[in-house]
């Protein structure tokens, strides 16, 4: 119930194309779903996040689509650029209760955008 | 900008050695975390701390311990390193217990021979 399943493991996209990464979860208590981006030699950094009360959130070329009934969410990168080449992690956490929340991460997707 | 600094970027140790990984954050964050990153397994939480001298086990605490004597510093300790602990170790901090945004260091790559 604590897992977040992420696919694909790796993805190659042509410049200008759309990159799509999918994640699924089981624990319906999760209420926060962020995506992290990690460049080689760096730590992951928060890219975009969504709460389950909305079905979509867009920030520039990055969009999260959220399907609460299917317990799935995805990251879409429009007009993908070589500079987007990185590893992307989805994650989920549960709020409330006073205890420190923990982020549960997916297994990561290595995205390569070819020029 | 928040800065999380991991003092050692690369370490090579021998089986059975005691290993200390140090992490310092400069933003007075309450929470600090240690993750390990392995290909195909993502980021797995080892330990976290929500206050000085407080710690909680994460999902894979076996073989590790932690120390948080000061708010800004969180250390990961491998009492007796083993080859299966060869990995990338990432330290992170968050402002409060909601942990809505984690700030990560650049990682410490540990090789145990």
Question: Can you tell me about this structure?
Answer:
The complex is a heterodimer of chains A (115) and B (113). In chain A, 0% of the residues lie in helices and 51% in strands. With 115 residues, chain A is mainly beta. In chain A, the strands form two sheets. In chain A, strands 2, 4, 5, 9, 10 and 11 form a six-stranded mixed β-sheet that branches. A five-stranded antiparallel β-sheet of chain A has the order 1-3-8-7-6, with no helix packed on it. In chain A, a hairpin with a 2-residue loop joins strand 6 (56-59) and strand 7 (62-67). Chain A starts with a strand and ends with a strand. In chain A, 31% of the residues are buried. With 113 residues, chain B is mostly beta strands. Helices cover 0% and strands 52% of the residues of chain B. Chain B has strands spanning 4-6, 10-13, 19-25, 31-38, 42-49, 56-57, 65-70, 73-78, 87-94, 103-104, 108-112. The interface between A and B is medium-sized, with 27 and 27 residues.
- Percentage of residues in strands of chain A: over 45%
* Estimated radius of gyration of chain A: 14 Å
Question: Quick one: how many beta strands of chain A?
Answer: 11
Determine the fraction of residues in helical runs of chain B and give it as a percent range: under 10%
